From TrEMBL:
The active site is at S55 (nucleophile), D217 (proton acceptor). This is NTE family protein. One of its GO terms (molecular function) is hydrolase activity. It comes from Enterovibrio norvegicus DSM 15893. A motif (GXSXG) lies at residues 53-57.
Amino acid sequence: MKKKNKSTKSAPQKVALILSGGGARAAYQVGVLKAISEWYPRVHASPFTIYCGISAGALNATSLACHSSSFRLGVKKLSWLWSKLHTKDVFSSSYGDILHHLGRQGFARMRAQYHCAPPFGLLDNRPLRTLLNNVINYNKIEHQIINKHLHGLAITASNYQTSKSVTFYQGQPEIKPWVRSRAIGQQCQITTEHLLASSAIPIVFPASQIGHGYYGDGSVHQIAPLRPALKMGAEKLLIIDLAPPQTKSKQAVPSAPGLATLGGHLMDAIFADTLSADLEHLDRMNNIVSSLDSKKAENLALRQVSAFHLSPSSPFEPLVEKYYSHMPIAVRGLMRLLGISPVEDAAITSYLLFEPKYINHLIDMGYQDAQNRRSDLTAFLSIE
């Protein structure tokens, strides 16, 4: 009697795409993904089965997760959306709308205490809610999960009541919620409210209410940006960061930092996401795992996780100075009133410049950076 040889085919590795926050800067991520998508066949499924996003990166991650079965199509739709984006599609940008919003904010805080005032924000991001409801079909997320094209989608926001980082995730049943001292993972159905919460830059945009809590930008309390992907079982991490290289100050004599300069530094610190420290921790853990035998590592629930970190090769400030005049005049007036200069405070402006020429330049920058590192990326993603 002949025995049948059963060929055991190892399951494909779970590759996670981690997209950090940065407002309009997130267009750079679209350029990187546009280049990668061209290295695959037209109808190829996404090489990423896990998507993790914070702030503007959460919008990109969710849109791509909806098209996990067709990677190039998903990137093409996302690229089209960003290339057509205007400031008025993200927040109210006319004189009348800005004055009405600020007046409503001030009047609400002059009423009696038993009237609950709305969350404070200098800018009204209701146009973004309308845009997200129109362009993202959230039902597709569950469809991709059922068909095994998507393992999990994670969106991180900050709970202002508990000062904890909350990761809302939707994925396969084997992904279990997690609890850490300053971070929790909560299973739910991802909606527009989660994206608005994750992208609500403090002071700039109002917090978003989910359940009984108010949530803001996911980068505020995020101390371990790689954790959501690792908790969902990722074995490879592609991280597209939005922290540009540091440039020297143009000022011959350093001056005391003003309100806008401090705001720019705070926003840069928020969106840094402590990523460098988390990558160093991952590297140390990989060294520890490599020194253990496979059985002991399995008993300790440890595994090797490789990571590829990609960030902009050029600073954003020169682009901001070039395209600052494309920003609506009412927004420029508000920024001038707050003491924000297009030249000296270009860092904070780079987050809010949602105009086509600036955005398309960022997409081209991301595309070129990915092409320059094509051999490394194809090796990491095992692209033949």
